[in-house]
Amino acid sequence: MALHDFIDPTATNPLGRPRGIWSALHLDPVLLFLLLALVSGGLFVLYSGADGNSQVVKAQGIRLGVAFVVMLVFAQLDPSVFRRWAPWLYAAGIAALLAVLLVGVGAKGAQRWLAIPGLPRFQPSELMKLVVPMMAAWYLSRHFLPPRFRHVIVGLAIVLVPMMMIIQQPDLGTSLLVGMAGLFVVFFAGISWKLILAFVALVSVSAPMMWFFVMREYQKQRVLTLLDPQSDPLGAGWNIIQSKTAIGSGGIDGKGWLQGTQSHLEFLPESHTDFIVAVLAEEFGFIGMLVLMLVYVLIILRCLYIAATAQDSFSRLLAGALTMTFFIYIFVNVGMVSGLLPVVGVPLPLISYGGTSGVTLMAAFGVLMSIHTHRRMISA
Amino acid sequence: MPWGEFKDTAAERRLFQRRTLVMLAFVLVLIGGLLARMYQLQIVEHEVYTTLSDKNRVQVQSVPPPRGLVYDRNRTLLAENRPVFSVTLVPERVDGMAETLTQLDRILDVSEEDLERFQRRLQEPRRPFQEIPLRYDLDEQEMARLAVHRHELPGVEVKAELVRYYPHSELTAHALGFVGRINRDELQRIDPVNYAGTNYIGKSGIERFYEDILHGQVGYQHVETNARGRTLRVLERENPVPGEDLQLHLDLRLQKRAHELLDGRRGAIVAIEPATGGILALASVPGFDANKFVTGISVTDYRELSESRDKPLFNRALRGQYPPGSTMKPMLAIAALDSGATTKDYTIWDPGYFRLNESGRRYRDWKRGGHGWVDLMDAMAESCDVYFYEIAVKMGVDTMYDYLSRFGFGEDAALDVSGALSGLLPSRDWKRAMRDEQWYPGDSVNMGIGQGFMLATPLQLATATSLIANRGSWAEPRLLKDIDGDTSVSGFLPDGNHEPLKLKDPSDWEYVVDTMAEVMHGRKGTARGAGAGAPYRMAGKTGTAQVFSLAEDEEYDAEEVRERLRDHALFVGFAPVENPEIAVAVIVENGGGGSSTAAPVARELFDAWLLEFQQSDDEALVGRVDSGGEN
User: Fold this and answer.
1) What amino acid positions of B are annotated as catalytic residues?
2) How far apart are CA B59 and CA A7, in angstroms?
3) ipTM of this predicted structure
4) What are the start-end ranges of the H helices in B281-364?
5) What is the mean pLDDT of residues B240-268?
6) Among the CATH numbers 3.40.710.10, 3.40.50.150, 3.90.930.12, 3.90.226.10, which is that of B268-287+315-480+499-618?
7) Looking at the complex, does the CB of residue B231 fall below 8 Å from at least one CB of chain A?
């Protein structure tokens, strides 16, 4: 890619249409507009969720700026770059996860971070949200689709190995997202419905096994708390009761920006991180939630359109899986805050305070834009 | 494709697009599910969660009323409230409970009990960020040390509350009683609403008797709080009604004098203003510091007090039941005159002993060899026992019982003195019920000089003496003089229910008062030493009560035993004779003779009350008028 491609707005793309500024920058204006709308609205909610602390908003703004730059960079890369690098990134990711388990640093009883001298601390598990679907897409797209049974098995193994390593950290939220990202690749690849049913059956059988052998005590407690928050209203049930109270007391049009009593009087825990959607629901009510969900659905629609119009199987599988991962973020977070799902550490995408997941998400949107803006004229 | 397999790209794309449609449906259904959940919470159950949210936010806090103050008759403060600081912990904000407690133990003196109570409270269910008290009543040094280390101790806070304080500690402990932390039994009894914010309740004395007036009415405030329970603003407030201040008849100066006069001894003094029944002094020595009991006394301090041989916690004035001895003679003289058992002229020969019949047992007079020819006047002045033996037998137990009960013996006649005992006024029925024996004439003989079964408290003796000073009209003893504000005393002070003691010949009162004046001023009066040189006339009677036995478990110490086997010295009296302003009962345990030990104490009290204080009050009055004139 030559530098003049960026500068010369008159250049034409291979499809023969005039290349606009968006094409030159390899950005999708529709997706970019929706993301900007989401992020800027999110900063307003964050200002309230952080109880008027402008430092928090500023830090988040800087972080999102970095994330947009990352998106921009990823968008410039040709999708074939991701395909070529997928196995090497995957190998490096597995090695990093191993290193985390051996020498990682962390807080609150979980080892998630890797501190390499000379580099900023980072969470290898976060990168795996991108790398695992890339690797699964790389592997499955090398064969006929729909995949044969043995390819499905290998594809599942590619997903499950890092997932189990992340569970060991332990980080249930991230392992769930990594696992879902990989499984969506397998689904989009065209795995037969019989296998899907068998898989669902297997999961429902293995759930009790997970309960007894895999889940930690605090994770079990979260599930129990979901089922009956009133059993321990001042302990584990507190978060759920308070967030439901925040949401429910918001009513149709909410208490008004900065007027939410649940968050500002500190009844709502984690009001600027994982539970921020409760702040939005409390202050902007059901209407606010409708608007938020509309923006999310529009983003997902645009991304699925990008996936459906992608030109090769690798791009399609990757784009579809990344889109669905974004959706899983939304569903798990809102489901958790509204008391439908157990409390799992999954942020509300692009709104919750916190850096790493925002960067990964924007990188994923960069990949999607790359896929969309690097299409060529090919023979069918 | 790297290894050149033929791929049906069109078929793959169609497959992918079908799957994408499935996923789109999946997304829309689940987003719809989330929105349905929001609809349920925000619209269907909105009311429920609004209520929950308000309940979170708005708390009703009780505001405890400040306890009423207690003044003496000169408006000297006897009981006040002072701020007390206690240290509390918020477990959610504490970094490492064990280390914090260890460090606090180094800074403050935290007892095992404190720790135990704290750990128990820690286990109980509570709101997040609710504080748990660790130790009460920090002193200034501890506050200072805590302030220095405060930054190292997150979650450790200091709270202030108003707590009762008795500035004259030992002087007033027995007269006022004290407050203490509400215990489990009291929790059952009190109104949970009115005591919602109150931690202390009257345990004894005035504090207990007038608890309702002193406590006041609880107030409320609706406050907006955050999750840590920190009050952000008051939304609505209903102020508490403070407890009413009380003024007592007690005079702190006389109370102090009484304590000084008994200093180093064990004993009690009760002084009453006869006209009103107002208790001017109620002293039991040794006293104790009631302040120690307010916030909870330490085990060692309590053991020291309760195991002391001098029994400082024992209220001798109200609960000490002593054989009254010869101090009963004035009341018995009234009984004998009115019942006709004797007359003013009746005279007997006292050979030094009394016999019920020719061959009977000899009841000795205290004076070996006897008093010779004595009438009632002589018998009182010299405290002749034989005279009273004879009139006691003549009256019989029933007559003595009837009269003495009219003087308030055998009952708690005081109106607002809680915890006073009734003593023992023996009767035929009592002896049959308690001892399963009939009443023997010998029992009457002993009763004639206030010995035998008869027991009375210093308060009862002062009450009976006051009745004589009043010439038969009753004014039941009481502590409460006035309630500040509009509250009337009569609503809270119980009514007296004693009929005046009317004699067939009212001049008998003057005669008996004369005999008592003879005790103080007569040539042969037993207390003539104590009565000498006074510018006013006083009436009195000495008494000496035998101490029969020593408790078995007390260690043998020759000096100590000799001291503790000595007789109790008693005195009752009033002054001035014509227009009595003060009636007293004095008992000095193991003090020896009433005339040598107890009577001089009473004289000092009379002098203080009638001469010294009266004069200083007059001067104060003059001073006030003077300063008023300058304005």
Assistant:
1) 326
2) 64
3) 0.90
4) 291-294, 299-307, 316-319, 329-339
5) 92
6) 3.40.710.10
7) no
